[in-house]
Amino acid sequence: MRPALTRHLPEIVPFAHGLLQRALQPGDIAIDATAGNGHDTLLLAQRVGDGGHVYAFDVQEQAISATRERLEAHGVAYRVSVIHAGHETVQQHVQQPVQAAVFNLGYLPRSDKQVTTQADSTIAALEGIWQLLQPHGLIVLVVYHGHAGGKQERSALEDYVCSLDPATVRVVRYALANVPNDPPYVLALEKLKQVSAC
Ligand SMILES: C[S@@+](CC[C@H](N)C(=O)[O-])C[C@H]1O[C@@H](n2cnc3c(N)ncnc32)[C@H](O)[C@@H]1O
Fold this sequence. Notes:
Elements: H1 12-23, E1 29-32, H2 39-48, E2 53-58, H3 61-73, E3 80-84, H4 90-93, E4 98-104, H5 119-132, E5 133-143, H6 150-162, E6 169-174, E7 185-191
Parallel strand pairs: 1-2, 1-4, 2-3, 4-5
Antiparallel strand pairs: 5-7, 6-7
Helix pairs in contact: 5-6
The structure holds S-adenosylmethionine.
């Protein structure tokens, strides 16, 4: 484990994990849109507990196997549907209200760097998950954008989230402002609860 460098301002991935842990309760439904090596899937599965469920998507067989292995090693595989399909197909696979979802954009570490998330499918998945998301539900994106194609995806994603109606969604960005070389950052979207005017 890396030593803690700060007390109040966590690094990017711990910050994303903290948001997800606060948004989820035992019994909830969660989505890992980019399973990869299964680190986020495991966190979600541990958080939703025996009564909850996680849907984890990836397009690469290597990622599906790695995620299944990690879940089995921790005894929580039964809480997760590991789905070998693009996250843009989310509505074909998930029909339940969802409390939280996570994306780690970019490529699978130590694998084919040509297989990366893409703006069009990322935004299609966001729209699909949005339809399933409960009021106060949370979508967390860890945006890796240093690779080829990363800036294009980041730019399209930023345009998309900045165009969303602030009356229905709060969009927050958490980034290390004084670190060089395109460090990853977090975009988080909370679905606002509509209150009826009486
Ligand atoms: C940065 S990695 C994810 C890391 C992962 N969260 C972890 O904990 O190890 C990005 C993953 O997105 C996957 N991916 C790319 N396009 C996708 C798509 N359309 N749907 C689902 N996964 C996709 C890649 O195969 C890769 O495994």
